[in-house]
Amino acid sequence: MFEKCLLVKFGELLAVSPQQFGFQKKLSCSHAIYSMRSVVDYYVSGLSTVNVAFVDLSNAFDRVNLNILFFKLMKRKFPPTVLKLLMIWYKHSMVAAHLDALIRISQFSDMRINASKCAVLRIGPRFSKHCADICIQGLPVAYCDKTKYPGVMLRSSVKFSVDLSYMKTKFYRAFNSLLHKSSKFKDELVKLQLILAYCKPHLLYATECLGMSVTQMRSLKNTWQCAVSHVFNVTGAAVQFICSVTDNSSLDVAITDKRIRFLEHLKLNSHHDILFTLYMRVGLQELSRLRDIKLHACAE
Questions:
Q1: Among 88, 171, 178, 228, which is most exposed with the fewest C-beta within 10 angstroms?
Q2: How many Å separate Cα 261 from the centre of its chain?
Q3: Could you tell me which of 263, 189, 260 has the C-alpha nearest to residue 38?
Q4: CA–CA separation, 292 vs 144, rounded Å?
Q5: For the chain, what are the domain ranges?
Q6: Residue 35: its pLDDT value, please?
Q7: What are the beta bridge partners of residue 54?
């Protein structure tokens, strides 16, 4: 409650860089992924190969230098009374909660980069070519074929690409566990509703910002249909019929709708320079293309 009161009263003094998407109102991992994909696609379209670095800070919240934190609040003219309260609070608390620039900042603020958990992903026409080693604090950072970034598995490839097998594995793990625990239920519709609520989101996670191809969306659609086939013990046209009467729309259409809603929401982020610029440069064209795809699908 105290935190919410502070945010309501002094939220304007706590503005952060527009490059930060975490812990920001009305922003999510999807916005971070979309921003990265848009930048990568821009350079790859010009036949450049992009090195994307993923940096991990060891115990980031525990290692925050409180002196630097309070100094920053002073510079933002945070009320002295509230600032003094926070200082006393943390003093008696048991736990205080471009790459070269990041390294210098981490050293200055007592942060430590965990090189063993960092990774570099190459995306572009020369993604498979050897590149010079990158070291952080004297330790080499590995070039990876795959790496996880806000809940999705990204692949090193000719263009921005996501590993669908990671999404499918999470879906089937949840599906098999739920199916085992609900084995006593004889009603297949009850099982299906549970799977819709607890398993299907694994197939839909972040699909609004990944720029998936029609083939990839159909692959996820087939995964869902396999699950429906297993629940009802049917095949062929019967699976198509069950999906049509139990779902508002097929999985590929649902993904297209999510992408359209996401891009339409970006248009409302005029206060966020990065997102609004990306929307004006690439989002408008993508939105128009997705609407055409949806109209074509409805016509069929």
A1: 88
A2: 16
A3: 263
A4: 37
A5: 2-161, 164-299
A6: 93
A7: 119
Q: Are 163 and 146 in contact (CB under 8 A)?
A: yes
Measured CA distances, 108 to 61, 63, 64, 100, 192 (Å): 15, 12, 11, 12, 54
Hey, is 261 helix, strand or coil?
helix
- Percent helix, strand and coil across the chain, each to the nearest 5: 55, 10, 30
Q: Collapsing DSSP states into helix, strand and coil, what is residue 191?
A: helix
Q: Is the distance from CB of 164 to CB of 216 less than 8 angstroms?
A: yes
Q: What is the DSSP letter of 90?
A: H
* E strand segments, the chain: 50-54, 57-58, 112-113, 119-123, 134-136, 139-143, 146-149, 152-155, 161-162
**Token pair of 212, please?**
């998936």
Can you tell me the distance from the alpha carbon of 114 to that of 52, in angstroms, rounded to the nearest whole number?
17
Residues of the chain with pLDDT under 70: 58-64, 91-111, 297-300
Residue 19, CA distances (Å) to 31, 66, 80, 164, 283 in order: 11, 23, 28, 27, 18
Contact between 278 and 266 under an 8 Å Cβ cutoff? The reply is yes
Amino acid of residue 274: I
Sheet holding 161-162, edge to edge: 146-149, 152-155, 161-162
In angstroms, the first-to-last Cα distance of the chain is: 53
pLDDT given at position 233 = 92
Which pLDDT value is given to residue 47? 93
